[in-house]
Amino acid sequence: xxxxxxxxxxxxxxxxxxxxxxxxxxxxxxxxxxxxxxxxxxxxxxxxxxxxxxxxxxxxxxxxxxxxxxxxxxxxxxxxxxxxxxxxxxxxxxxxxxxxxxxxxxxxxxxxxxxxxxxxxxxxxxxxxxxxxxxxxxxxxx
Length: 142
Hints:
With 142 residues, the chain is of the alpha+beta class.
């Protein structure tokens, strides 16, 4: 005779086979380039634009725009945090409200300040502390 615990375990195994976790739908947070933007991360020398400035000087005040989309099959269900790194070093973070599937959020005209002469890398990492269970974490940064 099968015990109720055995039957419950078998039911869970059967459900996992019939309805794998990814089939149930999960969110997926990824950097996003809205229509009209020059890239997923935009750096400019003026506010009110979503197009990269062609060049910068060390005396320029720089402004950052970025966006995130939930291109998964389910909403995030809660807020999450997106972080900015400059040359691999943590700069700041933002709290992003819960996103339904297909929804996006953006930050425009963040005052980045100036940068020293040379090449720099700016990275946005969405859900940087891993609060949201997603279909993949591999595409959270740009």
